[in-house]
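tool_call: predict_structure(chain=1)
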Amino acid sequence: MATAARAMEPRLLKAEELLTLPDDSRAELVDGVLVMMSPASGDHGSVAVRLSSALAAWVYERESGEVFDSSTGFILGRDPDTLRAPDAAFVSAARLPARRRGYLEVAPDLVAEILSPSNTVMEMSRKLRDYFRAGVRLVWVIDPETRGVVVHTADAPIRDWLEGDGTLDGGDVLPGFTLPVARLFAGLGQRVPDAAEPPTGGA
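tool_result:
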């Protein structure tokens, strides 16, 4: 029985083994277990580009570090390996590894995760735990559905909930960086009311 149970357990992978996957594969490692990721939706991709371009313009003008997109893997733990690929990430110039040809074995200073309909509360809680344990200082969780942003820091589970006319800021990680929340979602179509919401307007 014990032998059969061990045979059913997934084989734990090293981060470097993901480099052998096909070029169009997207995956993460969670304690050595492979987690495949599907392509992003149109709304997801639109928000990702708007955020990344705003971050990149601000960071590169000041030469304060590097901005990375969702194709970049960050090794957050070893034995077993945990590798995450956030939708956007910033690493300050002082912390950038000298060698960057493989996955980056450094925790970003800032991470942004854009929610998809398939994301669960447990999944996102685990991601936040992995990020903060590794040393990430600021996490933005962006929800295209509600058009809001939840700001997390290592010392505050939820620092801010921003929507509408709110403004996202870089805090101590990117002092001076600001971005109107509405600009993140400007490329999305009109929101479709939930089926449970009563119609508005006249009879």
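agent: Confidence is low (pLDDT under 50) at residues 1-5, 195-203. Proceeding to next step.
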